[in-house]
Specification:
The structure is a single chain. The protein is of the alpha/beta class. The chain has a single domain, classed as 3-Layer(aba) Sandwich (Rossmann fold), CATH 3.40.50.300. The chain has helices at 20-33, 48-57, 66-90, 101-111, 116-127, 142-152, 164-180, 193-212; strands at 9-14, 38-42, 94-98, 134-139, 184-188. It has a five-stranded parallel β-sheet with strand order 2-3-1-4-5, with helices on both faces. It is globular and about 45 Å long. The termini are close together.
């Protein structure tokens, strides 16, 4: 449960190329123009230690086992929660985070096949039980996501180099999570960006307004 003056915690999720960074930046711009206090962070990433872990995790030239990968993601998340996310929320600042715990469930449980309960228990330790108020899932066929990345012409990172079957498993688990969790907003990421942005902003403003009225997270 949140304190009365706590900020709202919003996360973006989705497969590679779904547009998380673009939709996140657009949302932040719209919120700031509306006078809403907001902080942007990402995972893996955030504070300096987490950013260093990010560079390691995404390096295509480094081989990392599934269990090591999990532990690195959780180490990055623990630092981000302790040093960035929770302090901002306690000050009443709304936090927008690109990826969070659900990415670990989708990629490490769905994609890698790691056992669910130990992964969830470890994630709960890393986050201190902090759960988003709203999780925006940008749903897209992984094939289309990679077509977008090819058009951008940039080098693939270590995760993007995984086989398409891996990314299909990731998408499937995301959709399964969305069916079970009421905090999810599933957005068809194949729609025109402006349609997505209006839906996202309306949903986020409803969450922020509810928390400002004393609603629970």
């Amino acid at each position: 449960m949140k304190s009365f003056n706590a900020g709202s915690f919003i996360t973006f999720e989705g497969v590679e190329g779904a547009g998380k960074s673009s939709r996140c930046r657009e949302l932040i711009g719209r919120l700031e123009r509306s006078g809403v206090s907001v902080l942007h962070t990402r995972e893996p990433g955030g504070p300096p230690a987490s950013e260093r872990i990010r560079s390691l995790l995404l390096d295509p030239d480094i081989a990392i086992s599934p269990l090591t990968e999990l532990m690195l993601y959780l180490a990055s998340r623990a630092s981000n929660v302790d040093l960035v996310i929770r302090p901002a929320l306690e000050k009443g600042i709304n936090v927008i985070c690109e990826r969070y715990s659900d990415a670990t469930f989708a990629y490490q449980i769905g994609g890698r096949g790691l056992p669910e309960k130990p992964v969830r228990d470890a994630d709960n330790l890393a986050t201190g039980g902090l759960i988003p108020d709203l999780t925006i899932l940008l749903d897209l066929d992984p094939e289309e996501g990679f077509a977008r990345l090819r058009r951008q012409g940039r080098k693939k990172d270590r995760i993007e180099l995984e086989k398409i079957s891996f990314h299909r498993r990731v998408r499937q688990l995301y959709l399964e999570l969305a069916e079970k969790e009421v905090r999810y907003l599933v957005v068809d990421a194949s729609q025109e960006p402006d349609i997505q942005d209006r839906l996202i902003k309306d949903s986020v403003m409803n969450i922020i307004s509810g928390n400002n009225d004393g609603g629970e997270g």
